[in-house]
């Protein structure tokens, strides 16, 4: 179980980031993101970073980056985190990245899943997932939800984070 933290804002800069050794030229990049409060976070994007729907990100796009809140981080400003997941804002689309328990309720008790016949359940690589989605880290893509706590939704798509 990963403790997913997130930061949302507008991408202000994208540039190559070279790891030690230099053999990875062009494989890693930094995405600088600024929120409404003028806070800035630099996301280190690697070939392992998952982009929802393989969206191409450009300067000016509004995104949410998810990272492991329990992982060690270097003490610099602006903060720099290895991005696990990047989600580009889409109108009428909500995304929740979290651990869902055996009742399919998120760890923060804010969302409960009601799996419907049209809910796509897949792995990060796009292949169908046929196992039990309970007690797993999930990327949940959904539209409408109830106004209760937890909110209840029938997701459009669920990506299982194995």
What's a quick, concise take on this entry?
This protein has no helices and 13 strands. The protein is an all-beta fold and 162 residues long. A hairpin with a 5-residue loop joins strand 2 and strand 3.
Description:
This protein is mainly β and 162 residues long. The protein is built from no helices and 13 strands. It has strands at 4-16, 29-34, 40-45, 50-51, 62-68, 80-82, 85-88, 94-100, 111-113, 120-123, 136-142, 151-153, 157-160.
What are the main properties of this structure?
0% helix; 162 residues; 13 strands; mainly beta; 7-stranded mixed sheet
SSE ordering? EEEEEEEEEEEEE
How many strands? 13
The end-to-end span amounts to: 10 Å
Mean pLDDT: 94
């Amino acid at each position: 179980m990963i403790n997913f933290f997130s930061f949302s804002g507008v991408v202000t800069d994208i540039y190559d980031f070279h790891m030690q050794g230099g053999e990875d030229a062009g494989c890693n990049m930094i995405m600088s993101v600024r929120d409404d409060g003028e806070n800035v976070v630099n996301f280190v994007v690697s070939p392992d970073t998952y982009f929802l729907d393989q969206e191409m990100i450009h300067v000016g796009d509004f995104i949410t980056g998810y990272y492991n809140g329990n992982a060690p981080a270097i003490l610099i400003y602006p903060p720099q985190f290895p991005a696990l997941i990047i989600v580009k804002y889409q109108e009428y689309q909500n995304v929740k990245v979290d651990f869902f328990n055996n009742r399919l309720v998120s760890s923060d008790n804010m969302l409960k899943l009601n799996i419907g016949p049209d809910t796509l359940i897949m792995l990060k690589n796009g292949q169908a997932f046929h196992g039990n989605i309970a007690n797993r880290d999930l990327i949940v893509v959904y539209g409408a939800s109830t106004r209760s706590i937890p909110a209840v939704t029938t997701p459009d798509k669920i990506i299982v984070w194995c």
